[in-house]
Every structure is written in C-alpha cells, then in structure tokens.
Amino acid sequence: MSQISEEIRARIRTQANNQCGYCLSLQKYVLGILEIEHIIPKAVGGSDDEENLWLACRLCNSYKGIQTDARDPVTNHKVKLFNPRQQKWFDHFTWTKNGTQITGLTPCGRATVLALPLNNPYAVTVRQAWVSAGWHPPTEA
C-alpha cells in the first residue's frame, strides 16, 4: 500500500500541470487517471519522497517499469532516463511536424523515447485524433 498522502498527490498533480511527464498527455484527454510514478523506482532503491515522484500516464509508467537508464541509439552510451522533475521537456524532446511523434534531441531524450516507446502505435493513433481535434501537440510542459 502506498504511503503517499493525498496532499502530496495533489501537489504533484499541480506541479505537473495534470500531464504525463514523459509523453505530455493531458489528464483531460486520457482515459484513466494519471498515476503518481517513482522517478527512481522503489524496486531499485527509490523512495516515496516528493522529490522522487511525478505524474505519468499508465502507458508511460508501465513501459518505464524499473528502468532508470537506457542506451542512446546514436552514441550507444548508457544514459539516465529523462527526469521530468529536474529536466525541461523541450530541452530534450520535440514534436514531429505533424505533432504525432516525439523526437529525442539529446542522448537522454533519444534513450527515453526508445526505452518508454513514446511513439508506440497506440500513442501515435491517439495523438492523430488529438491533432485533428486541435488539442495537440502541447506547447509547454
């Protein structure tokens, strides 16, 4: 059972602007409640401390699992995954011209795009509908 208080959960939702820290999906468009995720998973020594928590959609959180790092496909170096609490999304990622896919701009961004498959077919299909509705892509994280 989680020991994260409702007060901390509410504060994290506000800090994260009610959007996934990885794919930027907004709560108001996602089917299901965005989850409080552990940036460093508890299974590998992470804590329930607020500085280790952020908001993630179920898809990103489930793909992330216990990963904390991955290989950058360009340099083949092992790098830390993107930390949405400490890093700025637009420093590491951008949207493709049509707004449906995420492109990594840095080793961290590229590794995160692959490790969490941020461009999985489900996400891209949903983003296509969001773009058609004028809801996507987000312009700020």
List the helices and strands and how they pair.
Blueprint: H1 6-15, E1 35-38, E2 53-56, H2 58-64, E3 69-71, E4 78-80, H3 89-92, E5 93-95, E6 102-104, H4 107-115, H5 121-133
Antiparallel strand pairs: 1-2, 3-4, 5-6
Task: List unreliable stretches of 5+ residues.
Answer: none
Summed up, the helix count is 5
Radius of gyration: 15 Å
Strand content: 5-15%
| Biggest sheet descriptor | 2 strands, antiparallel
The count of strands amounts to: 6
Q: Structural class, from helix and strand content?
A: alpha+beta
Could you give the order of strands across the largest sheet? Answer: 1-2
End-to-end gap: 30 Å
| Total of domains | 1
Apparent shape: globular
| Mean pLDDT across residues | 95
Order of helices and strands: HEEHEEHEEHH
Question: Helical content, roughly?
Answer: 25-40%
Considering the chains and any ligands shown, give keywords for the structure:
141 residues, 14% strand, two-stranded antiparallel ribbon, 5 helices, alpha+beta
What does this structure look like?
The protein has five helices and six strands; from the N terminus they run αββαββαββαα. The protein is globular and about 40 Å long. A two-stranded antiparallel sheet has the order 1-2. The chain has a two-stranded antiparallel ribbon with strand order 3-4. With 141 residues, it is an alpha+beta fold. A hairpin with a 6-residue loop joins β5 (93-95) and β6. It has helices at 6-15, 58-64, 89-92, 107-115, 121-133; strands spanning 35-38, 53-56, 69-71, 78-80, 93-95, 102-104. The chain starts with 5 loop residues before the first helix and ends in an 8-residue tail after the last helix. The chain has one domain.
